[in-house]
Amino acid sequence: MDRTPGWSVRLKLTLSYAGFLMIAGGLLLGAVWVFLLRYVPRRETVLVHGTSVFVSLGRGGLVRDFAPAAAILGMFLLVFALLGGWLLAGRMLAPLTRITDATRTAGTGSLSHRIALPGRKDEFRDLADAFDAMLARLESHVAEQQRFAANASHELRTPLAITQTLLDVARNDPNHDNGELVDRLHHLNTRAIDLTEALLLLSRSDQKSFTPEHVDLSLIAEGATETLLSFAEEHGVTIETSGDMAQTNGSEALLLQLATNLVHNAIVHNLPQQGAVWVTTGAHPERVVLTVENTGAQLTPQRVSTLVEPFQRGTERIHSDHAGVGLGLAIVKSITKAHNGNLILAPRPAGGLRVTVQLPAASPYPGRK
Predict the structure, then answer these.
(1) 3-state DSSP call for residue 183?
(2) Of 209, 145, 154, which is closest to residue 325 (Cα–Cα)?
(3) What are the angstrom distances between the C-alpha of 5 and each of 2, 8, 96, 218, 292?
(4) Does domain 211-360 fall into CATH 3.30.565.10?
(5) 291 near 280, Cβ under 8 Å?
(6) Degrees (nearest 5) of the Cα angle 199, 201, 203?
(7) Domain boundaries in the chain?
(8) Looking at beta carbons, which pairs linking 19-22 to residues 24 or more positions away fall under 8 Å?
(9) Architecture in CATH for domain 131-206
(10) How far apart are the first and last CA of the chain?
(11) Rounded to an integer, what is the distance from CA 310 to the centroid of its chain?
(12) Measuring CA to CA, which residue among 302, 299, 281 is closest to residue 290?
């Protein structure tokens, strides 16, 4: 935004200091003047005491003697106020200058710079600390977005590159069986579509563009379980659903997607045989809870902390028919955040994963805060 040039804050503070000091000095001199006039006679008087003679100046003589001294003192106060105010204003605004320089540096795209303002806590330190915290969050967010863009590009490029290779082989070998080629191309195309839809869903959940409504997490959990029941039977996994009514406010479609992703993830990343998944819901005075647990391989806390990152699958970046596109838990995290909830991942002592979604309990009027 273009603005008309004006006085600097330092100059304004200097003039304010000088003006205040001049007013205070003028009031002080005025008080002295009134005090002196109270005890000075209007005319000169001569007092004789024995052999001594005392001459008392009248008000006219007092004016002649007091006015020049007051003028000199006023000039001294003005110079002192301007010089001192300029130095004090510069010292007081020094932290603001550092904050401004850091803002300009951040505006060039460098987010690693920090103000790190020393000294005791005050308004400027609070502002600098808040700005440093904002820079840290922005730097982390930008790095996360860059990793996401790189991973998404890699995931999208892989099926396209394989498709190109298959088409080149088919073109160079006219006698090749096209049935197998069509099946593989269909699988790759389906995978690309699933990835694109997952990216779109992740984008929509980040935007929080939904109208809150009453939702029962227990019904959501049952719906997700019924949808994936046959899929679980194919993998030899049993699913148990239990819990109480858990009313919250949010998007039924997004929360169903959240529960479906959690159950699907629990089925895929499970034991090769005789695996199990437990889906439970609970209600508390201020929050409701959806928990999905599954048997599986042993996981470390360090590994679990990375599972919500996009395109992370189990113990490594794997590709299989049912591994998904690597955005399941990332979408769960985004939907949970859009509903002002908390997502907690923890390894089970016996192996596998426990995922807990905590959401605010339903308020009487959805959409109101």
Answers:
(1) helix
(2) 154
(3) 9, 9, 19, 62, 61
(4) yes
(5) yes
(6) 70
(7) 9-110, 131-206, 211-360
(8) 19/81, 21/77, 21/80, 21/81, 21/85, 22/74, 22/77, 22/78, 22/81
(9) Orthogonal Bundle (1.10)
(10) 35
(11) 19
(12) 281
Reported as half-sphere exposure (CB side, CA atoms, 13 A), residue 88 has a value of: 13
pTM of the model: 0.57
Residues 6+ apart with CB under 8 A from 47: 53, 54, 55, 56
Q: Annotate 43-72 with b (16+ C-beta within 10 A) or e (fewer).
A: eeeeeeeeeeeeeeeeeeeeeeebeeebee
Name the DSSP letter for residue 363. P
Please give the chain's pLDDT, 369 residues, in tens: 666 777 777 788 888 888 888 888 888 878 877 776 666 655 555 445 555 544 455 556 666 767 787 788 888 888 888 888 888 888 888 888 888 888 888 888 788 888 888 888 888 888 888 988 998 888 887 877 776 666 667 666 767 777 787 778 777 776 666 777 777 777 777 767 777 776 776 666 666 667 888 999 999 999 999 999 999 999 999 999 999 899 999 888 889 989 998 999 999 999 988 899 999 999 998 999 999 999 999 999 888 988 887 766 554 444 444 455 567 788 888 889 889 999 999 999 999 999 999 999 987 555 444
